[in-house]
Amino acid sequence: MIFVIAGFAALTAYELPGLIKRRDAKEIAAVTLITAAALYYFVCYALSVNAWSPMDRLVHWLESGLGLSYSRFG
Amino acid sequence: MSESVEKNIQRMEAMFRGDRDFVVREFELPDGTKAAVIFIDGLVNAKVISEHVIKPLMRGRPVNVSETGSAFSDEEAAKAMLSGDTVVFIDGIGSAEYYNTKGFPTRQVSEPETETVIRGPREGFTESLQMNTALVRRKLKTTHLRMELIQIGERSKTAMCLCWLDDVANPELIDEVRRRLELIDVDGVLSSGYIEEYIEDAPYSVFQTIGSTEKPDVVAGKLLEGRCALLVDGTPFALTMPMLFVENFHSPEDYAIRPYFATFLRLIRFAAFFVSLALPAFYVALVNFHQELIPAPLLYTIASASEGTPFSLTVETAVMLLTFEILREAGVRLPRPAGQAVSIVGALVMGQAAIEAGVVGAPVVIVIALSAMSGFVSPTASNAVAVLRWLLLLAASLTGGFGLVMTLLCVYLHLTSLTSIGAPYLHPIAPLSPRELGDTIVRIPVEMMINRPSPFHTLDKRRKAPYNRATFTEGLPNEGSEP
Amino acid sequence: MSEKKLTKWQFISIGVFFMMGTILHTSFVSAIAGRDAWLIPIMGFVMFLPTLIFCWRIGNMFPNTGLYEINELVFGNIGGRIVTFLYFLFFLNVATLNHVEMSAFSATYLLRGTPIVVCGIMIVMAAVYAIKKGIITVGRASGALVILMLVLNAISFIQAIPQMDIDFTAPAMVQSPGVYARSSHISSTIMYGEGLALMVFAGRTGKKVNMGKSMLIIMLIAMVYMIQIHLREVLLLGPLVQFTRLPSLEAARMTGKSDTVSRTESIYSLIMLLCSLFRVLISFFVSLSALRKVFRLKTYQALVVPMAAFIAAYSLYALESPEDSYFYAVNTTPFIWALFTFVLPMFTLVIAVIKRKAKLPDRGGAV
Amino acid sequence: MKKTASILLALCMPFLLSGCWSSEEITTLAIVMGIGVDAAADGEYEVTVQIAQPSNLKFMSGGDNQDAYFNASSTGIGIQQQMHQFETELSREIYNGHMEMIVIGKEAAEGGLEQIMDYFYRESEARFNIPIVIADGKASDLLDVELKLERLPVSRLAGMLSTNRVDMVVRKITMDDFLRNAVSNSSATLPIIEQLEEGALETKGVAVFDKYKMVGELDQEQARSMLILTNKYGGGIATIELPDNGVFTFEITKSSASVKPECENGELSVNAEVYLEFRVSDVSEIGELYSDEARHNAEKMVNAAMFERLADVITRSRELNADVFDFADIIYCRYPRESESSIKNWDEEFRNLPVSISVTSKMYSSGAVLKNIQ
User: Fold this and answer.
1) Is residue C183 part of a domain?
2) How far, in Å, CA of B293 to CA of B299, rounded?
3) D241 phi and psi, to 5 degrees?
């Protein structure tokens, strides 16, 4: 399991040297941000910790908050 | 270039440092001035020199030889001598005259080994450029057939002839090829294989995007389709650009036999390509991952066959594949009679013994033999297939059907992204143009082949006017026209 | 020499291939509608018409401009980028949900023992390779692939006809209207709605490609395709269609008479795999180009691999448990999707028309 | 190009390290061909699994056919548990992708099949169209039946159901048919196979189920009439006892029944018209049959006999309170609104649902002989 994550993390970091050469600040920021997010979820999965998932939050808020869900009116 | 003959001869001898085949022949003109003839023995036709160069000079008559030129410097003279001309120094004249007396021995026109054909022209190219261009000229007796001479190779100075039909081929294509050829700056070009890799669009791809053939009629056919060909001096293989993927499955014979049989053969070649590419991987995926796809009786035979074998299925398949590749290579490398024996004996004995000894299961041998044999159906694609087969086998052994499908998709995408000098490689399939599927996967009757392939943006789109069969069919009795 | 634009047929083949990816979603509709599932795609198409009208009108107003450029033209620079960011979130979630379904499907049926995360990564790898090769190559490749898929689909339908039992659809249209409203809402937002992603390709199509017309052709072919899948499931499984999690695969397992060709569902599942991979691929690409438009990056090549890793990782946590994406898809996702596939396009259309009207009277020239 | 090549390499790296999970060598699989479930003490089940031994199964012309299969069985609470128990016991992994038959013992059927069925349809390897059979005695004995033509007892059972055209009393019921009935109001039926002495097998009749519990049996004649009424009868031999203890046997070649529900002002009723075509097999003393008059009274006799049998099966199913003829679905399809209320409590409704039957038959050949050779 750890190998899989290590493999993928190494891979995403593969892009960085190419980018640094191109000195494009915006792109480097975007790539590091996304890689960090990916790693966050992967590590949570490896340690089987429950990560924060926006989709889940949105669904629960819609269901309980606005009641916008078929499960309410069956 | 100095006036006196001796000084010229000494400088030339210094340049050639007394090679054995450097010949000097001094004589005197009728009016007493000294003259000398130098040439390279073996590259020239001695009879022509003595008859038409030395004798007329000695008698004061002019030299009547097809091609002459004058050299003003040592290099030019050396260059002329090296390409088979004879250089004449005359005392008192600052320049040297050279006459075309080429005459080195060449192989006779014979049937090519690689592309044997049952029905259709049998002549193949030889090593000499003059003979090859003559063969192509004989096929296309039109003034629009351009033959442009290009010289590449700093040391080898190989002469190449780029030929195309200037009223058919797209000038941009020709300029593009010429530009790529001029970029090549290498010291020796010994065979057309070198050039192929230089001017290819995708040199790292497993697939060949420049076609090569040994038969002038094939070259003529391709020129008519709007492509250009490159005849290289010293190799019997002509390069045809741009090449499409479907050409791997065309053989010159297709146009000499009935359309139905030709279509049948082409479909078999396509099927053989897929079988040789995916069969071992598919077999491993089937037995290791999707056992429910195998019908019960077959499942029993496979299970009982692989009961005693020590290796896992993937290792077994890989080992058998390797042995077949070794056998194939042995069969090709050995001289003709021995080669035949090795491959047959090897395959039979090896396979049989392996099964008896229980090292390998019988189904595996069948699968590998079938896939190896079907690889030979299209020689040009077989080297690509031999490499991809291993990639597919790896994917199938790791992830079964899933991996197999994904890798096939990646190969397909790789093929679509390839271009051969600008023309999309999978032309009628990837950028789908149904009308042109006619002459690629299936062979429609000759009458219907009216347009030239579109990716080459040929100047003259139509191959010929539609064939007016009606004119002579009324007369035939069984027209059903009797009252 | 080779053109860099998508021709009409290539765009339609990408669209149809994308819409064929709904084969994994059939349980959303058949779980609710049961034996009338095969009528739902028609109602879903009707509910999807407003968005189609949006594509048609916007396509005519701004010919050959992608969805994101339209946003910027209509909402100005900042507003456009915000709307594009909304679309980015939408398409990211579309890609993630499709990815979740696909990895759950391949983990349970094709590669029985493999953990879900590995299947996820393999799917994403294939998507990365395709995107690295460029979307024009994918367009070119999808031309022949779509025809192959449609032919294989037809063959598996015809092969199943002897097993089919017509009177499973017998008491048609008798269920309560709420059931029909709910399932056609699901169909129009999830199955058809995600087709909005195709609007992004408008910028890359050749001159003579009319957005509206091609989207209409794509959606009609998709409708016929969906009716055919549902019909096959209902006629083979009958009332059981409400209970199975992947009815199209169970239907494939049912067919097969003679023992030799009996169990062909593995081949059918590979077709399902390819179609849904394409759906993940296109929505992934679309969210990537949205990100690029929002942050004005020069190329998205650098973003491909990290974004793929993110989707593979995020899909593990997007839903409570990857196995039961059905629960969300049936209850809350249609509302979220409706926001993006119905409300946002309508809003853009209204603003565009108002802007067009405001411009025309005073200057009288086209935009 | 170098970039994509390196990316591909890096992407493959996680795989080479972590190996392949779902790849099972074929030699490590125990190929399950059939499963038998019997009720054991206090709610436990005895599961017997028939596993093929491929090496003996290979076709060996004239070889000694030692057993090409072996049965393993174990008792415990659920079925899934037993399967794992087998895996520990046998050296190989259980693989039921090729399962051909499920055999269920009579007591287990009477006890209710929810738990058994739940394992089979939730298990993603097994298929929906596996035939299910009820064993009159214990399922494990049925799986051990003596072999005549086949190499596996399971394939002998499967063969019995699908090919015995001669006496088509029983139809092959697959798991999805059974589940479909369990879902709707009509009740499911499963064939019962009885093991007579020294290895003879016979389809004894049909077990009737209410949802998942077995509530009763129909004998062979009733099973045939049920098939005729539900229009699934492929043909078979039937006999009629004549008054002076003669026998009139005829072979039904074609039978079609059209069952039409009617509803006059809220009153539901069903009208079944049955049309039979038969051929005379052997007859004790009717005399020549080629004359129209003789033909008519033979047809009248068959009509009467069949009418009485059809009526008998309907009364029997009313006793068992199981709608075996799918009347519920047929009525609901035709009159969804009106039948809404009665479908709710279908058990009582079915008991007093008026069913009118009419049988017409046609004898189209009296065999190769014009009249009895006497």
Assistant:
1) yes
2) 9
3) -80, 130
State the first-to-last Cα distance of chain C, in angstroms, to the nearest integer. Answer: 33
| Predicted ipTM beyond 0.95 | no
Q: Which of D206, D177, D174 is nearest to D192 (CA)?
A: D206
- Rounded CA-CA distance C64/C4 in Å is 14
| pLDDT tens digits, C210-237 | 888 889 999 999 999 999 999 988 888 8
Three-class SS state of D196: coil
Domain boundaries, chain B: 5-100, 129-243, 255-417
Residue D195 lies in domain: 25-218
Cβ <8 Å between B288 and D25: yes
Query: D10 CB near a chain A CB, below 8 Å?
Result: yes
Instruction: Tell me which residues of chain D, numbers 235 to 274, contact chain C at a CB-CB cutoff of 8 Å.
Output: none
Crossing angle of helices A2-22 and A25-46, in 10° steps, is 170
- CB nearest to B292's CB, from D55, D57, D98: D98
Whether the bond between C115 and the residue before it is cis, its omega within 30 degrees of 0, is no
Same domain for D189 and D262, yes or no, is: no
Which residue in D26, D31, D50, D125 has the most chain B C-beta atoms within 10 A of its own C-beta, making it the best mutation to test that interface?
D26
Chains that touch A (3 or more CB pairs under 8 A): C, D
Question: Which letter does DSSP use for residue D41 in this model?
Answer: G
Option in B296, B312, B398 nearest D98 (CB): B296
- Interface contact flag, C335 A69, Cβ < 8 Å: yes
**Domain annotation covers residue D206:** yes
Instruction: Chunk chain C into consecutive blocks of 10 residues (it has 367) and report each block's average pLDDT, rounded to whole numbers.
Output: 72 92 87 87 92 88 86 87 91 90 85 80 87 87 90 87 81 83 90 88 79 90 92 86 81 65 71 91 91 82 84 82 71 86 88 82 46
Q: Does C165 touch chain D (CB under 8 A)?
A: no
Instruction: Confirm whether C2 is domain-assigned.
Output: no
Residues of chain D neighbouring B202 (CB-CB closer than 8 A): 1
Buried b (16+ CB within 10 A) or exposed e, D45-72: bbbbbbbbbbebbbeeeeeeeeebbeeb
Least Cα separation, residue C72 to chain B (angstroms): 32
Three-state secondary structure call for residue D111: helix
Q: Is A58 helix (H, G, I), strand (E, B) or coil?
A: helix
Residue A11: closest C-alpha in chain D: D10
Taking Cα atoms as reference points, which of D57, D241, D77 lies closest to residue D154? Answer: D57
- Residue C226's DSSP bridge partners are none
> Tokens representing D130?
């596996």
Decide if A42 is inside a domain.
Answer: yes
Does the beta-carbon distance from B399 to C260 stay under 8 Å?
no
Is A25 in a helix, a strand, or coil? helix
Chains that touch C (3 or more CB pairs under 8 A): A, B, D
Longest alpha-carbon distance in chain D: 97
Q: How confident is the model at residue B246 (pLDDT cuts 50, 70, 90)?
A: confident
Q: What distances in angstroms separate CA C31 from CA B92, C38, C233, C344, D183, one per listed residue?
A: 106, 12, 11, 29, 14
Contacts of D96 (CB under 8 A, 6+ apart): D32, D35, D123, D125, D126
- Quote the CA–CA distance of B440 and B444 in Å, as a whole number: 9
Q: Which long-range contacts (CB under 8 A, 24 or more apart) does D317-321 make?
A: D317/D208, D317/D218, D317/D226, D318/D350, D318/D351, D319/D216, D320/D208, D320/D210, D320/D215, D320/D216, D321/D210, D321/D215, D321/D347, D321/D350, D321/D351
**Number of folded domains that form chain C:** 1
Within 10 A of D31 (CB to CB), how many other CB atoms are there?
A: 24
Considering only the beta carbons, identify the residue of D1, D5, D24 that sits closest to B288.
D24
**C1 inside domain:** no
Enumerate the residues of chain B whose CB falls inside 8 A of the CB of residue C13. 432
D9 to chain B, any CB pair closer than 8 A? The answer is: no
Inter-chain residue contact D10 with A6, CB threshold 8 Å: no
Closest by Cβ to D183, choosing from C114, C240, C263: C240
